[in-house]
């Protein structure tokens, strides 16, 4: 009888010991997990000094803002590439800025327009060229975009409005002063640039 009691006590002690060890391991793992979560949350916290007083500001997830940056980059490229004045230096400066945002497909289109005499016509006719962005569609899976807008060519006697539809791809790169969004546009091409209207200006 005494031996059975001793055996039962040994079994009970063994169960209690194993349970204690398992519980201790669980506590340690849970502690590591919560500590990791706290460190991750703390990394998303930024303190900004406001007149010497630290103010907590939460850092937003970069991935959530990325589509917005893609659209901003696409809009910026088109605005730089198609905003022109009758000034050769102004045109070259804008084109140069736009080419930092795109691969060699942008340079090919610039060379194509230059060979057709497009920029010389702008200067000779003292025209102003601007664009209006209607919408930008993104395909995040294929990393492809489509730009929809209008191109306005303002001359002394008329205003020409042309449809402007382009498409291409986008890719993440390292941010730089010339490319603050860290996005490069690739395989860009103009799909449609047909004339929509040609309105004469009233002369008094």
Automatic annotation (TrEMBL):
<keyword id="KW-0812">Transmembrane</keyword>
<protein>
    <submittedName>
        <fullName>Conjugative transposon protein TraK</fullName>
    </submittedName>
</protein>
<keyword id="KW-1133">Transmembrane helix</keyword>
<dbReference type="InterPro" id="IPR022276">
    <property type="entry name" value="Conjug_transposon_TraK"/>
</dbReference>
<feature type="transmembrane region" description="Helical">
    <location>
        <begin position="12"/>
        <end position="36"/>
    </location>
</feature>
<keyword id="KW-0472">Membrane</keyword>
